[in-house]
Design a protein that fits this description.
A seven-stranded antiparallel sheet has the order 6-5-4-3-7-8-9, covered by helices on one side. It has a two-stranded parallel ribbon with strand order 1-2. Helix 1 packs parallel to helix 3 and helix 4 runs antiparallel to helix 7. Helix content is 46%, strand content 18%. This is Transglutaminase-like cysteine peptidase. It comes from Pseudaeromonas sharmana.
């Protein structure tokens, strides 16, 4: 099979996998979900709209079935790890850009921050407490570069579980010797990570400019058009 033909078939299977849960468990969506789907469809195209619908159906299914936290982590991690990895320079024409979940889904890909942000906001929607979640900026020893993951703390003193787009299996932080934590944050706080634990509180997460910009765009649903259209 020629490479181009193989690439097109892989894409079709990807979209089928995104849509399959919705086909099997069709759920009525709230008006705000339908509006979001229409916005993404109008701005990014039909395939992006289907991805958006699959995400909103995932969230509604989790709420309806009252997933426990372990199930929510598994489903959200699996869903977003299907997206394509691309650097901010290639996709957005910027050295560093934190995409909102709608932008990430609309574009059909992104970098490690985009995976982590989409997972974080999805888990909040599914009812997980913000105090149990952090986005952690780490250094990947495997790739010798900075990286971002999501950490889930079952209890404040527990060893966190790591949701990652590189190693897609959810593992305790003690099993991720390839990651060295630098700092972490959630909706309220910022921590400096001096060790593989809670870290030292360093103030409010509002100190992070990119985080403030992201939350502003996310709350107002302002969308940015990517430099590269993955659906072309």
């Amino acid at each position: 099979m020629v490479p181009e033909r193989r690439r097109l078939l892989s894409r079709r299977w990807f979209y089928l996998l995104l849509l399959l849960p919705g086909l099997l468990f069709a759920l009525p969506l709230a008006e705000e979900d339908l509006n979001a789907i229409r916005s993404v469809t109008d701005f990014y195209g039909q395939r992006a709209g289907k991805r958006m619908q699959a995400w909103r159906e995932l969230i509604q299914r989790g709420k309806q079935q009252q997933w426990d936290e372990k199930r929510a982590l598994t489903e959200v991690n699996r869903f977003f790890n299907q997206m394509k990895f691309l650097s901010d320079v290639v996709l957005w024409g910027k050295n560093d850009y934190w995409a909102s979940p709608m932008e990430f889904i609309g574009a059909g890909g992104g970098d490690c921050e985009d995976y982590s942000i989409a997972k974080y906001f999805s888990l909040l929607e599914l009812g997980l407490n913000d105090e149990k979640l952090r986005m952690v900026y780490v250094k990947s020893l495997t790739y010798q570069q900075f990286h971002m993951v999501v950490a889930y703390y079952p209890t404040p003193a527990a060893i966190p579980l790591i949701l990652d787009n590189i190693d897609v299996a959810i593992k305790p932080a003690t099993q991720r010797k390839d990651l060295v934590p630098v700092f972490s944050f959630n909706g309220s706080h910022l921590w400096l990570m001096k060790e593989r634990g809670q870290g030292q509180l360093a103030g409010s997460s509002s100190r992070l400019t990119l985080w403030n910009d992201l939350r502003s765009r996310f709350s107002s649903e302002k969308l940015k058009r990517p430099k590269l259209n993955l659906d072309d």
